[in-house]
Amino acid sequence: MNTPPESDKKPGFFSRLFGAGKTPASASEKPAEPTQEAESPPATHQPEIPEAASPAAPPPHMVEPAPKLSWWKRLSQGLSRTASSLGSGITAIFTTRKLDADTLQDLEDILIQADLGVDVAGRIVGTIGKDRFDKTISPDEIKAALAHEVEKVLSPVARPLDLDVAKKPFVILMVGVNGSGKTTTIGKLAAKFRTEGRSVMIAAGDTFRAAAIEQLQIWAERTGAGFLSRDQGADAAGLAYDALAQAREEGRDILLIDTAGRLQNKQGLMDELAKIVRVIKKMDPEAPHATLLVLDATVGQNAVSQVEIFRQVAGVTGLVMTKLDGTARGGILVALAAKFGLPVHFIGVGEGIDDLEPFAAKDFARAIAGLEEG
Q1: Distance between CA atoms of 173 and 290, rounded to whole angstroms?
Q2: pTM (predicted TM-score)
Q3: What b/e string do you get for 292-310 counting C-beta neighbours within 10 Å, with b at 16 or more?
Q4: CB atoms within 10 A of CB 150
Q5: 170-207 pLDDT tens trace
Q6: What is the rounded distance in angstroms from the CA atom of residue 158 to the CA atom of residue 161?
Q7: CB atoms inside a 10 Å sphere around CB 77
Q8: Residues with Cβ within 8 Å of residue 175, at least 6 apart in sequence
Q9: Phi and psi dihedrals of 228, rounded to 5?
Q10: Helices (H), 230-301
Q11: First vs last Cα of the chain: how many Å apart?
């Protein structure tokens, strides 16, 4: 069979994906194995190039991008797992039964299973049962009462991150276990601060993970933030000291410092974080001005032990909850608010640059109860 000349051959998939003259890595090279610690670099929102387009299909650049969902829609979709679990359980209990001791016990079990915690579940059930006992009550009434009680728990901790402009740079120490979304969160915060017109520097203090250093550099380039890193394995405390000195010299408004999060070696983590804080305080006794713990919403009750450890190690001042993207166990945020009372500054519902927003108690409470936007 005759083969067409080279000039007539259609370019292959990788040629079309990477462009003329660019080739992927050799087939003999194995791709890196994914690890728990790897976090996705910022999405570039490039259109996906189909391997074989239909002749009738318009060129990729002519296709209208899907409309961006509102923040409420993204939040409610992110909490859909918890809302569905609560909603189906509430409907099953209250469709044909009165509010009595048995139904209240069943409701409490559902709330506990949704990670709201024993104390919060008991408090909510007690309040709901106080004025409605032995009455017929609809599932929608229970959901509305649930949202109201959850909002009461969350409102005291829904506080914005207070950036004191008198402190220059305002030093934010970012902590959290590897894989929690910490690296991506730093990038998103840098983007937010840059949008507000602030000058930002990022310090790649997780010196044990080359991937974290590379991803932060991408975020810095993308957002126009300054960036400081050292070779993999370098002393993290020394890097933090150098970053603060450079940020001061350059007149930066904010310094974001990444850190390692190896909970399998708690003592090593404690020693390293303590050293970072000690070294920073030599230059600025009030720094770090904020220590933010990034938590993965999919881990459920494990988040409680993470807060306990990092509070002990680093003196956490506020929380950021990430990965509220449909697989989340969002009820844990309610349990954390009741147990620790730490401010919740931001929540994230995806990997996009604008998928991190300040925490709003009412929106979260209504979404977790499966209600419409209030």
Answers
A1: 6
A2: 0.80
A3: bbbbbbbbbeebbebbebb
A4: 26
A5: 999 999 998 899 999 999 999 999 999 999 999 999 99
A6: 10
A7: 17
A8: 182, 259, 261, 273, 291, 292, 293, 294, 310, 313, 314, 316
A9: -135, 130
A10: 236-249, 266-283
A11: 68
